[in-house]
Amino acid sequence: xxxxxxxxxxxxxxxxxxxxxxxxxxxxxxxxxxxxxxxxxxxxxxxxxxxxxxxxxxxxxxxxxxxxxxxxxxxxxxxxxxxxxxxxxxxxxxxxxxxxxxxxxxxxxxxxxxxxxxxxxxxxxxxxxxxxxxxxxxxxxxxxxxxxxxxxxxxxxxxxxxxxxxxxxxxxxxxxxxxxxxxxxxxxxxxxxxxxxxxxxxxxxxxxxxxxxxxxxxxxxxxxxxxxxxxxxxxxxxxxxxxxxxxxxxxxxxxxxxx
Length: 259
Known about the structure:
Layout: H1 2-9, H2 13-21, H3 28-91, H4 95-109, H5 116-148, H6 152-160, H7 167-224, H8 228-242
Helix pairs in contact: 1-2, 2-3, 3-4, 3-5, 4-5, 5-6, 5-7, 6-7, 7-8
C-alpha cells in the first residue's frame, strides 16, 4: 500500500492501481487503498477533463473575440472607404452613384446612424438639384414657346435635347408636337379646300364656255336663217348672262337694233 501510494503520488496512477489489484482486494488494507486510489484517479481524470474543457472554452472565446475584432476593423475600413466614395460622388454631382453607394453600405454593413449625415446631405442635394432642374425646364419651355411661332420644328427639337428628361419638358414637347400636327392638318385641309375651289372654278368656267359657245351657235343659226328678231333676243339674253364684253359681242354687227 505504501509503495502504491508513493507511485500514485509520483504520477504513476495507473501503475499504482494495477499494483494493488495484484493482491486480494478483500483484505481490508488493500481493498480500502484500491478504492481510495481508484476514486482519486477518477477525480483527477474528471478534473483534467474539466480543465481542458475550460481551456477550450477560453480559447474559443478568445478566437471569437479576435474574429469579432477583425470583423469590426474590416467593417470600419469598409465604411471609411464607402464614406469617401459617397462624399466624392456628392462633390462631383453624381448623386445617383452616391445613392447606390449608400444602398450598398446599408445592405453590407448597416451603418445606421453612422451615415445619417450622408443620407441627409444626399437628400438635400437631390432637392436642390430637382429645384434647379425645374427652373431650367421652365426656362427652356418658355424659350421653345417663343421659338414656336418662327420655327415649330426647331422649338420641339430644343425640348427634345433637354437632358436629363423632365416631365414638364416632355409634356411641353408633346403639346407642341400636337399643335404642329393640328397645323399640318389645317394646312392640308386648306390646300384641299383651295384645290376643290379651283376645280369648281374650272368646272364653272368650262360650263360657262360651253354655254356661251352654245349661245353663239344659236345666234349664228338665227342669223343664217335671217331670223333677226330671234337673233336679237338671243343676243340680248347672252349679253345679260355673259356680259357685253363676252365673245357674243362679235355677233352684234350682224343683228339690227330692234325696239
